[in-house]
Design brief:
Layout: E1 2-7, H1 11-18, H2 21-27, E2 32-33, E3 41-48, E4 51-63, E5 69-77, E6 83-95, E7 98-110, H3 118-138, H4 155-158, H5 186-195, H6 200-205, H7 224-251
Antiparallel strand pairs: 1-7, 2-3, 3-4, 4-5, 5-6, 6-7
Helix pairs in contact: 2-3
Length: about 250
């Protein structure tokens, strides 16, 4: 196969990226790296049409004397017995505004990928190479690495704010308002005047006054009218009895 991809990055910067296995691993789209293994080692899911196949394997990129790079890799299916081997040659050509990457080589495979349509497999390989080339151009922007033992100074870290001792303001005292109202209610003033000089027992058993004092039952006037006339009548009857008694004594 042969495929070309344009990357808007100078050739020298791409060579620096291809010479760093860590950057190459970052450029492989969808690679899940294995811990403690080589940088370009892990799991990679490849989508072919409506199917997806996950491979586990490793790849290496090495520079050649003619300025090209050899890309070699092999992987096996995580769910199956199929495998893939590839041997590619990557060439860099200086182009106006960037670099043209040319891939050519061979790849052999067996297993599930051989059961899929060849045009779908070819489209998946082209898509994978395009994304890999684009990612190579993005990973060229890397921060400068500090030498071992050399402290890294940044603008934010170098500026250390000066400590300024500022006196802490004392907390505001808790003041409770125990003052009484200037003009107490009339009922309260009257009750306070009437309770002065009385014992606690008298105050507790004293009937309420003012607004809450009990209302006395209305008095009936009709019951007093007979008593008012009964007293003179009784006096007259008694006097008459005395006169009659004296008269009878004289006759005898």
């Amino acid at each position: 196969m042969e495929h070309e991809v344009f990357v808007p990055v100078p050739v020298e910067r791409l060579r620096q990226t291809l010479g760093d296995p860590v950057r190459v691993a970052r450029a492989v789209p969808g690679l899940q790296q294995d811990a403690g293994a080589d940088p370009v080692t892990g799991r990679l899911k490849v989508r072919v049409g409506s199917h997806s196949i996950t491979y586990r394997g490793t790849a290496h990129v090495s520079a050649r004397d003619d300025g090209s790079y050899a890309v070699e890799g092999e992987a096996g299916e995580t769910r199956g017995t199929g495998s893939v081997k590839l041997a590619l040659t990557l060439r860099l050509r200086d182009t106006d505004g960037g670099t043209t990457l040319t891939f050519d080589g061979t790849a052999t495979a067996d297993g599930r990928v051989t059961e899929l349509p060849q045009d779908a497999v070819g489209s998946a390989v082209v898509r994978l190479l395009n994304r890999f080339a684009e990612a190579l151009g993005e990973t060229t922007e890397e921060p400068e690495r500090a030498e071992p033992g050399e402290p890294v100074e940044t603008e934010e870290a170098s500026e250390t704010p000066e400590a300024v001792d500022t006196p802490e303001e004392p907390p505001a005292p808790l003041v409770e308002d125990f003052t009484e109202p200037v003009h107490p209610p009339a009922e309260a003033a009257h009750a306070r005047r009437t309770m002065i000089g009385r014992s606690a027992e008298e105050v507790d058993h004293a009937p309420p006054r003012g607004r809450y004092a009990p209302v006395p039952a209305p008095q009936t006037v009709a019951s007093g009218l007979p008593l008012r006339w009964a007293a003179p009548a009784a006096a007259v009857a008694l006097a008459s009895a005395i006169v009659v008694g004296r008269a009878l004594r004289k006759r005898r």
